[in-house]
Amino acid sequence: MTLNQIQESFPDYARDIKLNLQSVLAQTDLTEQQTWTNAVACALASRNETLSEAIVAEASAKLSPEQLNSARAAFAIMQMNNIFYRFRHMTGKDEYNTIPARLRMQAIRNHGGDPVDFELACLAVSSINGCEACVCSHEAVVREKGLTAEAVMASVRIASTLHAAASILEAK
Question: Which option is the CATH number for 15-171: 1.20.1290.10, 3.20.20.70, 3.40.50.80, 3.40.50.300?
Answer without folding.
Answer: 1.20.1290.10
